[in-house]
Amino acid sequence: MLPYTVNFKVSARTLTGALHAHNKAAVDWGWQGLIAYGCHSLVVVIDSSTAQTLQVLEKHKADVVKVKWARENYHHNIGSPYSLRLASADVNGKIIVWDVAAGVAQCEIQEHAKPIQDVQWLWNQDASRDLLLAIHPPNYIVLWNADTGTKLWKKSYADNILSFSFDPFDPSHLTLLTSEGIVFISDFSPAKPPSGPGKKVYISSPHSSPAHNKLATATGAKKALNKVKILITQEKPSAEFITLNDCLQLAYLPSKRNHMLLLYPREILILDLEVNQTVGVIAIERTGVPFLQVIPCFQRDGLFCLHENGCITLRVRRSYNSIFTTSNEEPDPDPVQELTYDLRSQCDAIRVTKTVRPFCMVCCPVNENAAALIVSDGRVMIWELKSAVCNRNSRNSSSGVSPLYSPVSFCGIPVGVLQNKLPDLSLDNMIGQSAIAGEEQPKGSVLQEVHLKFLLTGLLSGLPSPQFAVRMCPPLTTKNIRMYQPLLAVGTSNGSVLVYHLTSGLLHKELSVHSCEVKGIEWTSLTGFLSFATSTPNNMGLVRNELQLVDLPTGRSIAFRGERGNDEPPIEMIKVSHLKQYLAVVFKDKPLELWDVRTCTILREMSKNFPVITALEWSPSHNLKSLRKKQLATREAMARQTVVSDTELSIVESSVISLLQEAESKSELSQNISAREHFVFTDNDGQVYHLTVEGNSVKDSARIPPDGSMGSITCIAWKGDTLVLGDVDGNLNFWDLKGRVSRGIPTHRSWVRKIRFAPGKGNQKLIAMYNDGAEVWDTKEVQMVSSLRSGRNVTFRILDVDWCTSDKVILASDDGCIRVLEMSMKSTCFRMDEQELTEPVWCPYLLVPRASLALKAFLLHQPWNGEYSLDISHVDYPENEEIKNLLQEQLNSLSNDIKKLLLDPEFTLLQRCLLVSRVVTDKKDISLHSPENELQIISTPYLTSYEEELLPYYEVLARIERCLALQATVGSSCLVLSPLYELSGNFGFTLLRLYGDESELHFWTVAAHYLHSLSQEKSASVPATTETAPRDQVTNPLDICYDILCENAYFQKFQLERVNLQEVKRSTYDHTRKCTDQLLLLGQTDRAVQLLLETSADNQHYYCDSLKACLVTTVTSSGPSQSTIKLVATNMIANGKLAEGVQLLCLIDKAADACRYLQTYGEWNRAAWLAKVRLNSEECADVLKRWVDHLCSPQVNQKSKALLVLLSLGCFSSVAETLHSMRYFDRAALFVEACLKYGAIDLSEDTDILC
Known about the structure:
Largest sheet: 5 strands, antiparallel
Strand order of the largest sheet: 14-15-16-17-18
Mean pLDDT: 80
CATH topology of the domain at 18-207 and 230-320 and 344-386: Methylamine Dehydrogenase, Chain H
Number of helices: 24
Distance between the termini: 59 Å
Structural class: alpha+beta
């Protein structure tokens, strides 16, 4: 027979509640899949998938105002393992950097004693991942080394800084939102502070525009946009203009370069920073709900918007070629291409009250398919975006909204209709990019139209606002071990009782019991409790008392006192006897009532001259055992008289005995047994009364005169032979009843509000609660064990206390939290891997580094298996068996959809890489090996058997390289791929999503796209070399969010669309000039000439523009003219006219020379842009390769970006070499394998360097 086990482990934890107003913006969703938010001075970390609290960090002494997860966009291995790092800042200016898994503070930073306005981790270079940029009021930005707390540099500005935003396409560009305008910084660097004050511009609010009054009557944002012209100026607006006072947010658009949004309560403005002009506006109608926050998406040009009613909406940019008007609207005589964002989905709103309102929203950065809403009452609502295929014929064609189509690819690789895929994995797997960028659908397309909807997939409720009354259920004993659950009942100010399961920290039940504040709770059994509440007193001081008996399994609640309770003095306390037989109800100005708990009947209502009770406690002694012995003897005698045979006698005796034992084990008294119990109470004079209760009989046993050293007694606790009394002056009096001695201890802590003994036989620990804190005492030694006092180091005030277990206490505090602490009452954090969770959580960060890397390797590649498996038991893991079990637990916690994908034999290596990078987090690629299954890449036995049973993938690379070296000596014809190797195309895609791996996600996205493009070219019999860029494709191009990495033709098309939009929205000569410059660079000379001729005669540039128009029109390709123009351009560049000289070179088709000049003068991004739009593939590749060399230089150190550029060029061998030089051996091994599968790398003497 297996031993019976029950999980009653209770760890130290904190139950959080409503948030403070300072916590409004303190929330972040990390790439690791975890959400962190501030709750008063605490930082709460929850799992986004299961909505379980994983960690509560407590070290701040003030309210938290910002939290920010560290970016995981760097290479990880054993030397640089994954860690959960989080930065939090408070209103006192302190920044703490946490190791969240261990629950310890790694670094504390303090510059000033004012609230931190904003913090951000730097992500733009490979040298260091410890840099943290912070705004210290009023006008300082400080760069910190978050590992050591060292201040690297500090820079001040003229205006108060509110927030900042980095350009996601150019990390040297930083934008500050100030109290008066915007400051653009173009030379941000970790090495030194910005050199100047930056470019300061002013932005007029849309409310200051005369057109704003017409927004309500306009049919949409399209007509309003034509009226809102200049918003960015370098001149300070006049006093009658409203400036940035009501601007809520500033953010760059990560989906396309040089675009920024400004959020106002009723408008979202999209700005094109190249022309400093509004190119899109989302206006809310007069009856609409104002905006609170907006989060722009990266994968698709969409916006997650939070409204004041708590509704989250998703708006997606409409395709240019899909703009049409409704049937009821007159066609616009002058149709305009503009950035229009259509409402695609919205979630339900919340009920907003004075105390309940939406605070903030965060979006999943990995998949961008979920948003979490933080509500002021402590709720966290996780809304997940789902796609549903719809019938095209059922679409409402008059809605004015273009259709959305599902993408043709999944995890970077086109898939068939019947192939397994997870369409809701991420936003780019839900919506095809053609619906965003305006691409025409190909003929015979099998794309399916989809609709989007929000589903509530996670809800975490917090505690309501204080006051609290807490009571732990009866303690664990050997008799109740089979049914015991560590339940905590919490009475709240709104009349409800919350029951928490303290093993998991989750809400077990919420019961609406009372109509007013709950004052106290007493458990009557493991499954029931009594609670009382009192209403607000009337003019006579009388209240309505509510005393309810609640059955927990059913939730049934009955009025324990029946019709009693109206217009009487308030109940001050209730006390249930030790055997749960009797209940004492103490009133303020009314005699005591004694009740039978089992029958809900009153036993005795004391006379009016009964003493006024100030404290009461039941004795733990009783006569139940002697009564049961007598009853058992009586029943045995009766059985002997009625039974003849000895056999029947023994059967009856055994049945009677077992029946009695069963009743005793459940601590239930039969109706005919009423044990005698005792209680003591004190009156106003301090006299102690001892009364005995047995059935209906109440007897006055003894009276003890008051102790002269004690004041008015406020509370009593009794356990064993020890009785403890506390008074209004803070004195504790310890009575040893057996030794008949007492000892008084003055604590000098004022009023003793409550004292309770700890559970457990022989455990004589006691907790005492005061107005300013609490103390734990050892009554055996009569000495204090620990103390907690509200003040500088403890920012909260204690409202109620109780014991959770024999060595843990419960503290309810006025910050809305309930803390389960060790007996020392030190507010310490806990290790995440020590928590008991009801649902398994996928979080490989909690594993030791080697195990986490091994898990990722196991998910990525199993070359020793003929088919993919999620059972790790057959692998010989060199560590202990416990680690192996943890790995299997993580595998078991994966969702069924993910498991189905991973087990699909058609799911390729590239797809697995991308899935793991998204869904888990960024543990870099490794591989497993078992000694009986050797890596089978080629049919000949080039690889020796492994000595290790588990190798990180960077060690496997060496084996692969030796294999390639041996193969090169034999000849490429010997290469025969194993069945699994044949399927290695997309396997890694999906796994990287599992790990939330930012850098690898981008790498494998670009790699999968161009490797697949190469295979399509080869299948179409198009010759291609390994070191030339693949043929530009626009049928299924790389997403435009990758900007310069896209195919040239698609990039050119996007830039032409953009300049056309800029041209339509131009309103001043400066805008026209910028559009002209862009058109000339793009080679659109005819349209540029038209704009040049539009210059009015009274403009000071009229003559120059006219001459320039003539020059553009008459440029010929003759030698002398080309030489002259080139000479002039060179001179202009030498004399500081770089932009003008580049224009002249482009006029004579010398764009390659122009790119070289731009690179010489440090304009690397501009040179890459010009090469993409003007040069052919070979010339463009030369320019970009020089850029790669620059990115790899020690001064820049952006090799990760250089890898992406090389991938876009199709330089796959160079990518492998660079990965090897960067010591990214794991990624290099997987990449080489994928290239071999696609035929992107031919094994020859030229590629021996990879070996």
